[in-house]
Amino acid sequence: MYKLIKKCGKTRRGEFTTPHGTVQTPVFMNVGTLGAIKGAVSSMDLKEIGCQVELSNTYHLHLRPGDKVIKQMGGLHKFMNWDRPILTDSGGFQVFSLAKIRKIKEEGVYFNSHIDGRKIFMGPEESMQIQSNIASTIAMAFDECISNPSPREYVENSVARTTRWLERCKIEMDRLNSLPDTINKKQMLFGINQGGTYDDIRIEHAKTIAKMNLDGYAIGGLAVGETHEEMYRIIDAVVPYLPEDKPIYLMGVGLPSNILEAVDRGVDFFDCVLPARNGRHGHVFTKEGKINLMNAKFELDGRPIDEGCQCPACKYYSRAYIRHLFKAKEMLAMRLCVLHNLYFYNNLMREIRDAIDGDYFPEFKEKKLTEWAGRA
């Protein structure tokens, strides 16, 4: 259940109550695709760096270790020792981005595994069944994620099929939640708005899915080829047509500046692999913008990554030491930088919530964007 605490223009400050705890929004979900954050970050680390929601992927967990294995182990919460909310992506995006060969039909998608090439079928019912076995807090509806730009006729047909798939997801989720052997009988379902970069298709789809009384609504199919300006335009167009009493999730976005702009437009939930991926390559976020620790100028730099930061890396280690670890190919380098970047994102969201609570979000946003732009 979503409770809207405060609004400042379009900006929303809320609380989302789930079977695994209450989430303060706006929130950034830390991406652990296979039930772990890449970079040797544990579920206990996630608590230390302020993670509220962990995100895992249906497609990947279905392939390894297998959703039935996870169910036998008591569900993903128990398997990975995490007692806070988990959101599982439906697998739709991965089917369309990773599968070597795929065929889309009304019943679902036939594709080949990117790991061993074996043939797999996934449709709305299969995606819900896998997510029910995983027993995540929030399941995402199975949809088709198209690239931008795509021909209008294709987008219209795709969105119509995504709507039909969503209806099937809802029916199957209700059925699964009623079964005696289901681990999480209160699993929640978020629908996904699609429509490429066509405002009118997006708006009509938002109106349609808003009537379905889902637990939350996502804006999908962005950050896949369009400009930032196009993305912001789509968010502006769609948000007014989604229910105000449900959380809004912008999928796969993105940079800290993207998050600030989207929060300003009414978005509550975010996720992106970017902070962890950047960290694994020595690219770290600071209050003055992003820096590359591999640069020679940091060889004798005794300062922490970001002065004033309270993450485990900044409290105990210097830029020079972490740079040395990267050059020596020590795994600790990746771990420290991923911890820092995720802490940076989680802390940014806390600062955003404080700014909304304190009625100074517009000033906070402009200050941050100016600081980051100056560094860039």
UniProtKB/TrEMBL annotation:
Q: In which pathway does it act?
A: tRNA modification; tRNA-queuosine biosynthesis
Q: Which domain of life does the UniProt lineage start with?
A: Bacteria
What's the cofactor?
A: Zn(2+)
Co-factor binding comment: Binds 1 zinc ion per subunit.
Domain named tRNA-guanine(15) transglycosylase-like: residues: 10-372
Residues the record lists as binding substrate:
D89, S90, G91, G92, F93, D143, Q194, G221
The record's active-site residues are D89 (proton acceptor), D271 (nucleophile)
Stored InterPro entries: ArchSynthase1/Queuine_TRR (IPR050076), TGT (IPR004803), TGT-like_sf (IPR036511), tRNA_ribo_trans-like (IPR002616)
Per UniProt, the keywords (alphabetical) are: Glycosyltransferase, Metal-binding, Queuosine biosynthesis, Transferase, tRNA processing, Zinc
User: Where does this protein hold Zn(2+)?
Assistant: C309, C311, C314, H340
What is this enzyme's catalytic activity, as reactions?
Answer: 7-aminomethyl-7-carbaguanine + guanosine(34) in tRNA = 7-aminomethyl-7-carbaguanosine(34) in tRNA + guanine
Q: What is its EC number?
A: 2.4.2.29
Q: Identify the Gene3D superfamilies for this entry.
A: Queuine tRNA-ribosyltransferase-like (3.20.20.105)
Record region (RNA binding):
252-258, 276-280
Q: State if Ligase is listed as a keyword.
A: no
Q: Name one GO molecular function term.
A: metal ion binding
Q: How does it assemble?
A: Homodimer. Within each dimer, one monomer is responsible for RNA recognition and catalysis, while the other monomer binds to the replacement base PreQ1.
What function is annotated for this protein?
Catalyzes the base-exchange of a guanine (G) residue with the queuine precursor 7-aminomethyl-7-deazaguanine (PreQ1) at position 34 (anticodon wobble position) in tRNAs with GU(N) anticodons (tRNA-Asp, -Asn, -His and -Tyr). Catalysis occurs through a double-displacement mechanism. The nucleophile active site attacks the C1' of nucleotide 34 to detach the guanine base from the RNA, forming a covalent enzyme-RNA intermediate. The proton acceptor active site deprotonates the incoming PreQ1, allowing a nucleophilic attack on the C1' of the ribose to form the product.
The record ties this protein, via NCBIfam families, to: Q_tRNA_tgt, tgt_general
Q: Which family does it belong to?
A: Belongs to the queuine tRNA-ribosyltransferase family.
Could you tell me what this protein is called? Queuine tRNA-ribosyltransferase
What organism is recorded for this protein? Clostridium liquoris
**Name of the coding gene:** tgt
